[in-house]
Design goal:
Blueprint: E1 2-6, E2 14-18, H1 25-35, H2 40-66, H3 72-75, E3 89-96, H4 101-119, E4 123-130, H5 136-147, H6 162-175, E5 183-185, H7 190-204, E6 225-228, H8 233-238, H9 240-246, H10 251-254, E7 263-268, H11 271-274, H12 276-281, H13 289-296, E8 305-310, H14 314-326, E9 330-334, H15 339-348, E10 352-356, H16 360-368, E11 373-380, H17 385-391, H18 404-409, E12 410-416, H19 418-428
Parallel strand pairs: 3-4, 3-6, 5-6, 7-8, 7-10, 8-9, 10-11, 11-12
Antiparallel strand pairs: 1-2
Helix pairs in contact: 4-5, 4-16, 13-14, 15-16
């Protein structure tokens, strides 16, 4: 085996062991001497084989060198690079969960992505879950474990223990202010996540790790990585195959009805119905009924069948149905289903689904489902401008998907609220 040292312009050196694929001159001489006694057809075959192996070796070496680009492990975590370093450390990655099922899928997905990235550093990361304090985590856990087969064995309370509190304190006492490098949140950039993973490896290599005496056993290691983050487009794109494989949906248990091939499905999250004041502060805003009918579906043929899904009552959704009917669509509201049944309905739609990009529930139904086209929109308004800039940091409003399936079906669109239209008109005048 030969050692290839991979350097990064802004990060520490990373040594990755790779096989020696290139023929030495002595080996080549021996091969040609053997070839001299072969028939012309066999000599031709052997020559072709040597050429193929040499080209393959060059491709693999070039792939390995890709890791050394200035963008770090996060950007270059390509599944085609299969020659990984040996596992040197087994360590824990604590995933802080929050919100309901869609949010849990998003947060666990970050763990799956970081686990693969850590593997390139020789770290085998065990995902350990920690639920939020709000009691709705139990309903979210039930939905997640009922419908996503590989989550059934996951312990959603593994890090909600006194032992974890002791381990966390011991790690902070040991590393001091540097412990913040082992924490990843929604403000962390790609470069921050790279640096956290590399610092994690650095402290795992240290010999002065503290020994924590616990009354009960804990699944959490010292040092561990703490992650409290929703997945962003770039990370979802790069690790989509792993994420899709992990979140295999149990259709038999969690589906009630399925969409027809002719219908478009519109998901109305209605954040401001649930939290009118806090929702605006957080930048959650959806289009008004008139904007949905006249702008969101402006390019859709009149007469198309549109089914509206929402967690809220028909009374809350009726203005959207009326607005769509008024411009010539055949609209219905599908109600009376559980949340997971709505999720299944969205996944089953094969034509087109439409919903807000800010809903993790809708977003994961879009990326995991069967729709030929999934339109994820967000609203620019005085309440959302700064929040949207923060939300899309690192992937951009106009992110260009790279995975072939996502590139083919996911479309992100931006619209303006009525208030923003007025402000823009005033600014022009």
């Amino acid at each position: 085996m030969s050692e290839i040292t991979l350097r990064n312009s802004s990060h520490s050196t990373l040594d990755v062991a790779t096989p020696s694929f290139v023929f030495s001159s002595s080996r080549y001489t021996a091969v040609t001497e053997c070839a001299a006694v072969l028939t012309p057809s066999l000599r031709q075959l052997l020559s072709w084989l040597v050429t193929v192996l040499s080209v393959r070796a060059w491709i693999l070496v070039m792939a390995a060198k890709d890791i050394s680009s200035s963008q770090g492990i996060f950007i270059n975590d390509m599944t085609s690079l299969r020659h990984l370093p040996p596992i040197v450390h087994n360590a824990s990655m604590v995933i802080q969960l929050g919100g309901e099922m869609g949010n849990q899928l998003s947060m666990i997905s970050v763990g799956l992505a970081l686990r693969r990235q850590a593997r390139y550093l020789g770290i085998h990361a065990q995902i350990v879950l920690r639920h939020q304090d709000h009691s709705k985590w139990m309903r979210a856990r039930e939905a997640t474990q009922t419908c996503f087969i590989k989550t059934k064995s996951m312990d959603f309370e593994a890090a909600n223990t006194e032992e974890f509190s002791q381990i966390s304190k011991a790690q902070t006492d040991w590393l001091g202010k540097n412990n913040t490098f082992l924490s990843i949140d929604n403000e962390s950039t790609n470069e921050d996540m790279d640096q956290s993973l590399k610092y994690w490896k650095e402290v795992l290599d240290r010999q002065d790790r503290p020994s924590v005496v616990l009354k009960n056993a804990s699944m959490v290691s010292v040092p561990h990585l703490f992650v409290n983050r929703y997945i962003k487009n770039e990370q979802l794109d790069l690790h989509f195959d792993d994420i899709r494989d992990f979140f295999r949906f149990d259709h038999e248990r969690c589906c009630k009805l399925r969409a027809s091939a002719e219908e478009i499905v519109l998901h109305m999250r209605l954040f401001l119905t649930e939290m009118p004041r806090r929702g605006r502060l957080l930048g959650f805003e959806e289009l008004s009924p008139m904007k949905v009918a006249n702008e969101l579906f402006h390019n859709t043929n009149r007469g198309e069948n549109i089914t509206i899904l929402s967690r809220f009552s028909d009374h809350n959704v009726k203005p959207y149905k009326d607005a769509l009917d008024a411009v010539g669509f055949q609209t219905r509201v599908l109600s009376g289903q559980e949340g997971v049944e709505d999720f299944c309905y969205l996944m089953s739609a094969t034509k087109e689904i439409v919903g807000t990009e800010q809903s993790s529930f809708f977003k994961f139904a879009a990326v995991l489902g069967n729709a030929t086209k999934a339109r994820l929109y967000f609203v620019e308004s005085p309440d959302t401008k700064e929040k949207l800039l923060s939300r899309f940091r690192g992937s951009g409003f106009d992110y260009q998907w790279k995975h072939p399936l996502l590139k083919r079906k996911i479309v992100i669109e931006k619209y303006k609220s009525e208030v923003q239209d007025i402000l823009d008109a005033i600014a022009i005048n």
